[in-house]
Amino acid sequence: MAATYDFPSDLLAGQEELHQVRAELLALLKRLPWSVEPLDGFSDANGWRKVERPASPGWTADEQAEVEKLRRRERELAVFVTCHRFWSEVTPEETVHARASLKHAHEDPA
User: What distance in Å separates the CA atoms of residue 103 and residue 39, rounded to the nearest whole number?
Assistant: First the structure.
């Protein structure tokens, strides 16, 4: 039987916010042009697969600031979650399973 863990509420909240920030960052990056700086489009059929990119207008200052804000928050949360005092209570043999359990703690049990 798999072990269950009594995660502290602040650790659960930090992990949940980390999931949310990563999802928001991924969605933002998918919406933005492929290049931060304005660049011409290109097409290259000489490699093992053809690569094409349309011209990129680049990111606005506001878009760059939003990406940086989300990345900064993602780093803060990642450090908070991975360095939380809870992990000192978990044996080294259990750490991987406990970390995986925390990542899925917000999901509804099936």
Answer: 38
